[in-house]
């Protein structure tokens, strides 16, 4: 049984809270929610609130979006302070000026509500990273 459901995860994200799972076996963190620990595979997990702070490790500019989304936008991969890596969008960056200087920028998680997505049940929510 899932300790943290995706519904709980996204509801917390809508309040700019980042939930994850802390492993009793290895002490590692997993987010977004999964059935087992990303580090060791244990299912002995508890819900934990993560700091939401991290560092951009890589990014890409999406200029041709999937149906239902509007391009262009920036997707980043962030290493969180607690260890896991999380993908999301980045805010407060001019897309045409996105360059390698984004790498290693410190960020804080918020959220972005995406409406009008095709093939989903209702609105979508995604992590949105704000550069500090």
Automatic annotation (TrEMBL):
Alphabetized InterPro entries for the sequence: ChsH2_C (IPR002878), ChsH2_Znr (IPR022002), NA-bd_OB-fold (IPR012340), Thioester_dehydratase-like (IPR052513)
Domain ChsH2 C-terminal OB-fold, chain residue ranges per copy: 49-97
Pfam family, one: zf-ChsH2
Domain ChsH2 rubredoxin-like zinc ribbon span(s) in chain numbering: 11-46
Protein name (database record): DUF35 domain-containing protein
